[in-house]
Amino acid sequence: MAGTKVGGAEITIERDADVYQISGKAWAEGLFKWLTEWRSLFTATGRVENGSPVAEGYSLTERARNKVKELSLQDGNLTYVKNGKSRTPSAPTTKMDLLSALFLPNGCNTSGDIHNGKDQFSLTLTRADTATSVPGASLRCEFDVRDEDQQRITAVVWLGEVEGLTVPVQLDLAGALEGTLKLRA
After folding, report:
1. How many Å apart are CA 118 and CA 176, to the nearest integer?
2. Structural domain count, the chain
3. What is the pTM of this model?
């Protein structure tokens, strides 16, 4: 199944001086769609301080067959509803969410603790190079990503300029989760 397209996504980045909003949707395609019926809506909002994003709000809604997961993190308060039942996990202690880290990078300077609204991860830059092998990319950043259980993923983020913003044009993952995500402007 290598090289098989399993999904798509649309992402919008709005930035006005020192505030930003990232919103989008993602969905399964092909056989994966038939198996899971997975789709997702997401938003991250915040401000930019010293060239780096500081997330202030994050929301995620995921649907798959009969399952619905809704997550909202606003001003440090986490609301998490899974299949109609409220859950009470602790809110992440870091202010950097995954969307802000990926789509508002300060070059490869995105190391630190990040979250996906509910779970925390550590993101450590292991290598940064000028990119030449991925069309549209000018910088290659390799990160070691670890979850709370120390499961490891190597994430290679290829950054390029699209409509005046430096954004990932490709993301390669290896480890507990594997795959390639490509951006088409």
Report:
1. 18
2. 1
3. 0.75
